[in-house]
Amino acid sequence: MSSSRVTIALLGCALLVGICAIAIRYSEHSGGQLFGEVFSRADTREHVVALTFDDGPQEPDTRRLLEVLDREHVQATFFMVGRAIERYPELASDVVRRGHQVGNHSYSHAHMMLESAQFCRDEIARTDALLRLAGAKGPIRFRAPFGENLWSLSCVPDETHRLDALSIVNSRDYDRTDTERIISTVMDQIHPGAVVGLHDGGGPREQTTAAVEQLIPALRAKGYRFVTVDELLALDGR
Predict the structure, then answer these.
(1) CATH no. for residue 226?
(2) I need a labelling partner for 216 at 20 to 30 A (CA). Which of 22, 69, 74, 147 fits?
(3) What is the 3-state secondary structure (H, E, C) of 93-134?
(4) Is 199 assigned a catalytic role?
(5) Is residue 54 annotated as a catalytic residue, yes or no?
Protein backbone atom coordinates (compact mmCIF):
# COMPACT_ATOMS: atom_id res chain seq x y z
CA MET A 1 0.00 0.00 0.00
CA SER A 2 1.31 3.43 -0.91
CA SER A 3 2.11 6.01 1.76
CA SER A 4 -0.76 8.22 0.56
CA ARG A 5 -3.25 5.38 0.97
CA VAL A 6 -1.91 4.61 4.43
CA THR A 7 -2.31 8.27 5.36
CA ILE A 8 -5.88 8.33 4.07
CA ALA A 9 -6.71 5.12 5.94
CA LEU A 10 -5.28 6.49 9.17
CA LEU A 11 -7.17 9.73 8.75
CA GLY A 12 -10.34 7.75 8.13
CA CYS A 13 -9.82 5.72 11.30
CA ALA A 14 -9.11 8.86 13.30
CA LEU A 15 -12.27 10.47 11.95
CA LEU A 16 -14.36 7.42 12.86
CA VAL A 17 -12.94 7.36 16.39
CA GLY A 18 -13.63 11.06 16.73
CA ILE A 19 -17.22 10.68 15.56
CA CYS A 20 -17.80 7.82 17.99
CA ALA A 21 -16.31 9.81 20.85
CA ILE A 22 -18.53 12.79 20.07
CA ALA A 23 -21.57 10.54 19.79
CA ILE A 24 -20.87 8.97 23.17
CA ARG A 25 -20.32 12.37 24.78
CA TYR A 26 -23.51 13.64 23.15
CA SER A 27 -25.59 10.71 24.32
CA GLU A 28 -24.23 10.17 27.83
CA HIS A 29 -26.60 11.53 30.48
CA SER A 30 -27.69 14.28 28.11
CA GLY A 31 -30.85 13.06 26.48
CA GLY A 32 -29.22 13.05 23.05
CA GLN A 33 -30.93 10.27 21.13
CA LEU A 34 -31.67 9.61 17.48
CA PHE A 35 -34.96 7.75 18.00
CA GLY A 36 -37.51 7.43 20.74
CA GLU A 37 -38.35 9.46 23.80
CA VAL A 38 -35.87 10.52 26.47
CA PHE A 39 -36.68 11.77 29.95
CA SER A 40 -34.17 13.30 32.35
CA ARG A 41 -36.13 16.12 34.00
CA ALA A 42 -39.68 17.37 34.46
CA ASP A 43 -40.63 20.80 33.18
CA THR A 44 -41.74 22.24 36.50
CA ARG A 45 -40.95 24.99 38.96
CA GLU A 46 -42.00 22.78 41.84
CA HIS A 47 -39.08 21.77 44.06
CA VAL A 48 -39.13 18.03 43.40
CA VAL A 49 -36.26 15.69 42.48
CA ALA A 50 -35.95 11.98 41.74
CA LEU A 51 -33.01 10.13 43.27
CA THR A 52 -32.02 7.20 41.05
CA PHE A 53 -29.49 4.43 41.63
CA ASP A 54 -27.81 2.31 38.94
CA ASP A 55 -25.97 -1.01 38.62
CA GLY A 56 -27.40 -2.85 41.65
CA PRO A 57 -28.61 -4.65 43.55
CA GLN A 58 -25.40 -5.26 45.47
CA GLU A 59 -24.59 -6.35 49.01
CA PRO A 60 -23.97 -4.65 51.34
CA ASP A 61 -24.33 -1.31 49.54
CA THR A 62 -27.96 -1.52 48.42
CA ARG A 63 -28.97 -2.79 51.87
CA ARG A 64 -27.23 0.12 53.62
CA LEU A 65 -28.75 2.60 51.19
CA LEU A 66 -32.23 1.18 51.80
CA GLU A 67 -31.74 1.74 55.53
CA VAL A 68 -30.91 5.41 54.89
CA LEU A 69 -33.91 5.89 52.59
CA ASP A 70 -36.24 4.18 55.09
CA ARG A 71 -34.96 6.36 57.92
CA GLU A 72 -35.48 9.50 55.85
CA HIS A 73 -38.85 8.34 54.43
CA VAL A 74 -37.64 8.79 50.85
CA GLN A 75 -38.82 6.75 47.85
CA ALA A 76 -36.25 6.37 45.08
CA THR A 77 -35.85 4.56 41.75
CA PHE A 78 -33.38 1.70 41.27
CA PHE A 79 -32.26 0.85 37.72
CA MET A 80 -31.12 -2.73 38.13
CA VAL A 81 -28.76 -4.93 36.11
CA GLY A 82 -30.17 -8.38 35.30
CA ARG A 83 -27.14 -10.41 36.29
CA ALA A 84 -27.03 -8.53 39.63
CA ILE A 85 -30.69 -9.44 40.23
CA GLU A 86 -29.79 -13.09 39.60
CA ARG A 87 -27.02 -12.83 42.19
CA TYR A 88 -29.16 -11.06 44.80
CA PRO A 89 -32.81 -11.96 44.05
CA GLU A 90 -34.02 -11.44 47.62
CA LEU A 91 -32.40 -8.02 47.79
CA ALA A 92 -34.09 -7.02 44.51
CA SER A 93 -37.43 -8.16 45.92
CA ASP A 94 -36.77 -6.23 49.13
CA VAL A 95 -36.30 -3.00 47.15
CA VAL A 96 -39.76 -3.54 45.64
CA ARG A 97 -41.33 -4.50 49.00
CA ARG A 98 -40.09 -1.27 50.54
CA GLY A 99 -42.05 0.70 47.93
CA HIS A 100 -39.25 1.89 45.68
CA GLN A 101 -39.58 1.94 41.91
CA VAL A 102 -37.36 -0.45 39.95
CA GLY A 103 -36.20 -0.05 36.36
CA ASN A 104 -34.26 -1.93 33.69
CA HIS A 105 -30.55 -1.18 33.24
CA SER A 106 -29.92 -4.09 30.82
CA TYR A 107 -28.80 -7.61 31.69
CA SER A 108 -25.01 -7.40 31.37
CA HIS A 109 -24.37 -3.63 31.48
CA ALA A 110 -22.38 -3.96 28.27
CA HIS A 111 -21.46 -1.15 25.90
CA MET A 112 -24.42 -1.80 23.60
CA MET A 113 -24.24 1.24 21.36
CA LEU A 114 -22.78 -0.70 18.41
CA GLU A 115 -24.41 -4.05 19.21
CA SER A 116 -27.19 -5.50 17.08
CA ALA A 117 -30.81 -4.63 17.72
CA GLN A 118 -31.51 -8.25 18.66
CA PHE A 119 -28.75 -8.19 21.29
CA CYS A 120 -30.36 -5.10 22.83
CA ARG A 121 -33.83 -6.68 22.72
CA ASP A 122 -32.55 -9.77 24.53
CA GLU A 123 -30.76 -7.70 27.19
CA ILE A 124 -33.89 -5.69 27.94
CA ALA A 125 -36.35 -8.61 27.81
CA ARG A 126 -34.22 -10.81 30.06
CA THR A 127 -34.01 -8.12 32.73
CA ASP A 128 -37.72 -7.28 32.44
CA ALA A 129 -38.50 -10.91 33.28
CA LEU A 130 -36.22 -10.85 36.32
CA LEU A 131 -37.77 -7.61 37.56
CA ARG A 132 -41.24 -9.15 37.27
CA LEU A 133 -40.06 -12.10 39.36
CA ALA A 134 -38.82 -9.59 41.94
CA GLY A 135 -42.33 -8.16 42.12
CA ALA A 136 -42.25 -5.19 39.74
CA LYS A 137 -45.71 -4.02 38.68
CA GLY A 138 -46.80 -1.62 35.97
CA PRO A 139 -44.53 -0.19 33.28
CA ILE A 140 -40.82 -0.93 33.64
CA ARG A 141 -38.70 2.08 32.70
CA PHE A 142 -35.41 1.59 30.89
CA ARG A 143 -32.07 3.35 31.36
CA ALA A 144 -29.27 2.77 28.85
CA PRO A 145 -25.95 1.54 30.29
CA PHE A 146 -23.36 4.34 30.37
CA GLY A 147 -26.03 6.64 28.96
CA GLU A 148 -25.04 5.36 25.48
CA ASN A 149 -28.40 5.63 23.79
CA LEU A 150 -27.64 5.99 20.08
CA TRP A 151 -28.09 3.64 17.11
CA SER A 152 -29.45 0.14 17.93
CA LEU A 153 -29.98 0.84 21.61
CA SER A 154 -31.91 3.94 20.69
CA CYS A 155 -34.16 2.13 18.21
CA VAL A 156 -35.14 -0.82 20.39
CA PRO A 157 -37.02 1.08 23.13
CA ASP A 158 -38.69 3.11 20.38
CA GLU A 159 -40.17 -0.07 18.91
CA THR A 160 -42.36 -0.43 21.98
CA HIS A 161 -42.81 3.31 22.56
CA ARG A 162 -40.63 3.04 25.65
CA LEU A 163 -38.77 6.09 26.88
CA ASP A 164 -35.15 6.11 27.99
CA ALA A 165 -35.04 7.45 31.55
CA LEU A 166 -31.67 9.14 31.93
CA SER A 167 -30.37 11.57 34.57
CA ILE A 168 -29.69 15.25 34.07
CA VAL A 169 -27.72 15.58 37.34
CA ASN A 170 -24.63 13.38 37.17
CA SER A 171 -23.10 12.83 40.61
CA ARG A 172 -20.01 11.14 39.14
CA ASP A 173 -19.93 8.93 42.23
CA TYR A 174 -18.58 6.12 40.03
CA ASP A 175 -15.16 7.79 39.82
CA ARG A 176 -15.09 9.75 43.07
CA THR A 177 -14.27 8.44 46.53
CA ASP A 178 -14.61 11.81 48.22
CA THR A 179 -18.09 12.09 49.72
CA GLU A 180 -17.94 15.88 49.87
CA ARG A 181 -17.16 16.12 46.15
CA ILE A 182 -20.18 13.96 45.33
CA ILE A 183 -22.38 16.20 47.45
CA SER A 184 -21.04 19.42 45.95
CA THR A 185 -21.35 18.03 42.41
CA VAL A 186 -25.03 17.27 42.93
CA MET A 187 -25.81 20.52 44.75
CA ASP A 188 -24.15 22.56 42.01
CA GLN A 189 -26.38 20.97 39.35
CA ILE A 190 -29.66 20.56 41.20
CA HIS A 191 -32.80 22.26 39.93
CA PRO A 192 -36.57 21.67 40.09
CA GLY A 193 -37.71 18.51 38.32
CA ALA A 194 -34.24 16.98 38.02
CA VAL A 195 -33.44 13.28 37.85
CA VAL A 196 -30.29 12.66 39.92
CA GLY A 197 -27.96 9.84 38.86
CA LEU A 198 -26.21 7.84 41.61
CA HIS A 199 -25.01 4.23 41.97
CA ASP A 200 -25.62 1.40 44.42
CA GLY A 201 -23.70 -1.22 42.43
CA GLY A 202 -20.75 -1.75 40.12
CA GLY A 203 -18.13 -1.34 42.86
CA PRO A 204 -17.81 -0.29 46.50
CA ARG A 205 -20.37 2.43 47.20
CA GLU A 206 -19.74 3.50 50.78
CA GLN A 207 -19.12 7.04 49.53
CA THR A 208 -22.50 7.14 47.80
CA THR A 209 -24.41 6.02 50.87
CA ALA A 210 -22.52 8.58 52.98
CA ALA A 211 -23.30 11.28 50.40
CA VAL A 212 -27.00 10.40 50.27
CA GLU A 213 -27.21 10.64 54.07
CA GLN A 214 -26.14 14.27 53.77
CA LEU A 215 -27.79 15.13 50.46
CA ILE A 216 -31.32 14.37 51.63
CA PRO A 217 -31.34 16.91 54.51
CA ALA A 218 -29.37 19.41 52.41
CA LEU A 219 -31.96 19.28 49.63
CA ARG A 220 -34.84 19.40 52.09
CA ALA A 221 -33.31 22.55 53.56
CA LYS A 222 -33.63 24.09 50.10
CA GLY A 223 -37.31 23.11 49.93
CA TYR A 224 -37.02 19.95 47.82
CA ARG A 225 -39.11 16.83 48.22
CA PHE A 226 -38.33 13.42 46.75
CA VAL A 227 -40.33 11.43 44.21
CA THR A 228 -39.86 8.41 41.97
CA VAL A 229 -39.24 8.65 38.23
CA ASP A 230 -42.87 7.64 37.53
CA GLU A 231 -44.11 10.38 39.86
CA LEU A 232 -41.88 12.87 38.08
CA LEU A 233 -43.21 11.68 34.72
CA ALA A 234 -46.78 12.17 35.93
CA LEU A 235 -45.91 15.67 37.09
CA ASP A 236 -44.55 16.30 33.59
CA GLY A 237 -47.82 15.10 32.06
CA ARG A 238 -46.37 11.93 30.49
Answers:
(1) 3.20.20.370
(2) 147
(3) HHHHHCCCEEEECCCCCCCCCCCCHHHHHHHHHHHHHHHHHC
(4) yes
(5) yes
